[in-house]
Amino acid sequence: MPSFDIMSEVDQPSLRNAVDVANTKIAGRHDFKGTSAKLELGDKLITMFGDTDFQLDQMKTILLPEMTKKKVDVRCLDYGDVQKISGNKVKQEVKVRVGVDQDLAKKVVKLLKDSKMKVQAAIQGDVVRVSGAKRDVLQDAIALVKKDITDFPLQFGNFRD
Asked: Fewer CB within 10 A of the end CB, N or C, for the chain?
């Protein structure tokens, strides 16, 4: 039976490159001179450090276009709360969401079942596997999911005949 996987992945080298370029731009800007403004990339986590909330917002306006240029979908970012750290400094953690979480996977499975298409959807870890009798039905399923799920970046891959 033909099948495909619905997944959500981020190209790590492109993300690292975008953060590095944004850090270079931040270091070169005059309004950031002499401040503690910087971005740090961890495993699936970007930490923004600054002196004020306004600086964090300015850092976002530098980072997001760089991510877009490197073809990293900005919908994968999950912004945390702004936290006060030593002195008058602030930081904000931004999680990079990778994989389809359980709630979204259940929503995709329910969407496909309610559509009355002749496909079966199964949650396998952080991937949703969709299988059907014909390729055309699977292509219709991809179109339906693309149309209804717009708030999270999804990729469709591992297509098998």
From this structure: C
